[in-house]
Amino acid sequence: MSLSIRVRLCMMMFLNYVIWGSWYVTITTYLTTTLHFTGTQAGAVFGTASIAAMISPFFVGLVADRFFATERVLSVLYLLGAVLMYAVTTATTFPAVYGLMLLYCLSYFPTIALTNSLLLQHVRNAGQDFPLIRVFGTLGWIVIGLVVGAMAVEKTTGQFFLGAGVSVAMGLFSLVLPHTPPPAKGEKLSVRKVLGLDALEMLKDKSFLAFSIASVLACIPLTFYFSFTNNYLNDVHVANAAGKMTLGQASEVIMMLVMPFVLRRLSVKGILVMGLAAWAVRYTLLAFGDAGPGVWMFYLAIILHGVCYDFFFMTGQLYTDQQAPAHLRSAAQGFITFLTYGIGMYAGSILSGSALDFFTTGSGDTAVRDWKPFWLCSAAGAFVILLLIVVMFRSKAKIESTPATT
After folding, report:
1. How many angstroms from the chain centroid is the CA of residue 301?
2. Cα angle vertex 279, ends 50, 329, to 5°?
3. Which of these, 137, 131, 74, lies nearest to 108 by C-alpha position?
4. Residue of 229, 254, 26, 218 whose CA lies nearest to 138
5. Across the chain, how many H-helices and E-strands are there?
6. What is the pLDDT of residue 280?
7. CA 10/CA 6 separation, integer angstroms
8. Regarding beta strands 360-361 and 368-369, do their DSSP bridges make them parallel or antiparallel, or are they unpaired?
9. Planar angle of CA 327, 329, 335, nearest 5 degrees
10. Is residue 402 helix, strand or coil?
11. CA distance 71 to 177
12. Which of 108, 102, 100 is nearest to 84 (CA)?
């Protein structure tokens, strides 16, 4: 792979996650603080991302993989997304914001699979090259989080203007990405393959079934964090909350470098349990922290993100790939993505919003939220899922190093 291609792929990942990070962790702050949406309404808007995550694999499988070059599809999606994101800045009612965000997410979330696909088709060694290029996505998330925090636009439409502007830039930049023709052009269309239903046979393995159930459930407390942590930190008057939250992505980068060491020494079950334990600890810290002497609890809760995310979700992706027969690897990844980012996070979006309303008295400018029980409920949920893995996940497998096949 030439230096020119490598640089373009790194920039692609960087900009793609800048777009996502511009609004994802701050939108509920804007919705509840500025537009005075209820927690349920804010959670529903946040859940449009999960609806899109459930639908986007079908789009990729039916359209992008069979008919058009990937870079051209990306260009159209980014430019369409820019228009829709700009439209969000003009909407003030729940139906309008919900509808526009749903359309926007349907245009954005296919780009995650498409950029990964494009990258994998141009690297020589997936195991070696993919993480080193993918990490630029995390760096992009960190940069935009710092920008949003420094500009103090968490409560304003400024976050959407940022996302729309970068989407325009990415729409144009996509046209100079390496040419990537549709990989499945001319192949016979199989609805079962597009939907990833072939991977259902893996559920016969009781440990993989337990892991799949736990993956769905784990995304519920995960969504509590992504949906309302920024809102919470602003509510308790933590300065530059968006900027501080980027420490989570910084820790994720560090943990990516540490993971090979962890994977060699611990079983899959051990790593999953440690990840879920970190989630329970993180939510407990959020419950008892404050913006004064207890602010260290907030910092520690944010920094735990690397352990929380990589130990459960990255390990889960590797475990899924290892357990899947060679001919089912793509279907298995699509299936686990559908369960987690789709079903699990959608359920979490709805439940987190309802929970916030349950622990809120008053409405509008007079709304008072009791955050401590909100976070303790999340901690309890993570601990229950940990017990599920301890009891039902019987496999003693470790993640094995295998040479890249692409």
Report:
1. 18
2. 50
3. 74
4. 254
5. 19, 2
6. 93
7. 6
8. antiparallel
9. 120
10. coil
11. 6
12. 100
How far apart, in Å, are the Cα atoms of 179 and each of 74, 183, 263? Answer: 12, 12, 35
Q: Which pairs with CB-CB distance under 8 Å and at least 24 residues apart come from 97-105?
A: 97/31, 97/35, 97/37, 97/45, 98/41, 98/44, 98/45, 98/48, 101/27, 101/45, 101/48, 102/48, 102/51, 102/52, 104/48, 105/48, 105/49, 105/51, 105/52
Q: Tell me the residue type at 216.
A: V
**Mean pLDDT lowest for which of 86-95, 143-152, 158-167, 193-202?**
193-202
Contact 50, 156 (CB under 8 A): no
DSSP string for 326-342: GGGHHHHHHHHHIIIII
Q: Which secondary structure element, helix H or strand E, spans residue 226, and what is its range?
A: helix 206-235
CB 171 within 8 A of CB 79: yes
Tally of CA atoms within 13 A in the half-sphere of 238 that contains its CB = 27
Q: What is the pLDDT of residues 311-344, one digit of tens each?
A: 887 777 778 777 777 666 656 766 777 788 888 8
Q: Which helix (H) or strand (E) holds 45?
A: helix 39-46
Comparing CA positions, the residue from 76, 80, 69, 57 lying closest to residue 118 is 69
Backbone angles phi, psi at 369, to 5 degrees: -105, 135
Rg over CA atoms, the chain: 20
Q: Which domains does the chain have, with CATH numbers?
A: 1-181 (1.20.1250.20), 193-406 (1.20.1250.20)
Whole-number Å distance between alpha carbons of 357 and 374 = 10
**Amino acid code (one letter) for 170:** M
Q: pTM of the predicted model, to two decimals? A: 0.77
